[in-house]
Description:
Blueprint: E1 7-13, H1 19-33, E2 40-46, H2 58-65, H3 81-86, E3 89-92, H4 95-104, E4 113-115, H5 136-160
Parallel strand pairs: 1-2, 1-3, 3-4
Helix pairs in contact: 1-2, 1-5, 2-5
Bound molecules: 4-nitrophenyl phosphate.
Amino acid sequence: MYNTIQTKILFVCLGNICRSPMAEGVFSKVVNDANLSEQIKVDSAGTGNWHIGHPPDNRAIKAVALRGIDISGLRARQVSANDMHAFDYIIAMDNQNLADLKQLCIPSHHYKINLFLSYADQYDDSEVPDPYYGGNQGFETALSMIENASEGLLKKIKHDHG
Ligand code: 4NP
């Protein structure tokens, strides 16, 4: 049972080449596995503009490929004020992303913006750490957090939409 025509989810990090494209890929698979890909649309964006048009970082592509997920076709874009209207759930990877998104968004839409790890049940952390300047282990850690939070986010969306 899912009583809304379409729900739109936007994952946001700084560059849109590491964390948020991994989240887009993982969450899309979780939605697809639940046979909800017609009802739930998934996208990602970055608060920064340095990587507009770039594919995800190779380390992110490889980490999710080990889970059978292909994000190599994604291209980075910068989040816009219009996104704050167009999307129903806007998911920030860290507290800086959260603060930047709230600046872009009218106060009556702030309820849409939440930290991704607030949906995780296996982590007490509030942030998915930025893995860009570290090694492969940072991508594995971020990916494990993203996988756990994705399950919780789908539960929350299903709960919100009956
Ligand atoms: P992301 O990682 O926010 O997870 O995509 C980063 C990617 C690039 C940069 C910072 C973080 N950068 O400074 O270029």
